[in-house]
Amino acid sequence: MSSGRKIYTFSCRHPNILRLYGYFHDATRVYLILEYAPRGEVYKELQKLTKFDEQRTATYMTELADALSYCHSKRVIHRDIKPENLLLGSNGELKIADFGWSVHAPSSRRTTLCGTLDYLPPEMIEGRTHDEKVDLWSLGVLCYEFLVGKPPFEAETYQETYRSISKVEFRFPPFVTEGAKDLIVKLLKHNPYHRLPLKDVLAHPWITTNSTKQPSSRKSEAATSNRTPS
């Protein structure tokens, strides 16, 4: 395990990020001591239900956007947000896991092609440098997949998927509501600087109307404002 990896796995402490408590190794393996997430992968839950309703999706988006905002404040880019890398805690809360493709990037500019094909943003497949805004794209793809049951750029061949991503070509089924469409479209922008910032994702009307959770930052603010002055 590199020293760079240790910096951000131990420093990221957020209710929606799977905790790494420590690690040890022998001659052939590294063993991670991780927080237990008893409800398993979000991917398996999505397979079982085929898709999620708006309330569940908006709640997951709140938890994800809040956790990613925390990561980005620590200069950590995840770069591989997808259902397989999201776990569920004992109360059904979402936990970001598997930071295998993540990077602690103080310069905020990277060139490595990584992640999962259906979730790759245009700047990655086009060989351009990228920064934390790749996670905003992944958030849009994930929101679509939660609501529809499959990623927006899924195609029969890799070439078709690459082309669809590069041109940002996708369609919504008729059951997706206008509010959800608005959020997804604002995240799936070819130009990274045109993507909706995480703070605006958390304040988006579709999110605030449907989510059952508040961002942890707002809970802290509420707790502070409700304290009785001594």
TrEMBL record:
SMART domains assigned to the protein according to its UniProt record, in alphabetical order: S_TKc
Catalytic residues in the record: 80
Residues that hold ATP according to the record: 35-37, 84-85, 98
Placement of covalent cross-link Glycyl lysine isopeptide (Lys-Gly) (interchain with G-Cter in SUMO2): 82
UniProt EC number: 2.7.11.1
Keywords in alphabetical order: ATP-binding, Kinase, Nucleotide-binding, Serine/threonine-protein kinase, Transferase
Reaction catalyzed: L-seryl-[protein] + ATP = O-phospho-L-seryl-[protein] + ADP + H(+); L-threonyl-[protein] + ATP = O-phospho-L-threonyl-[protein] + ADP + H(+)
Gene Ontology molecular function, alphabetical: ATP binding; protein serine/threonine kinase activity
Name of the protein in question: non-specific serine/threonine protein kinase
Species of origin: Gopherus agassizii
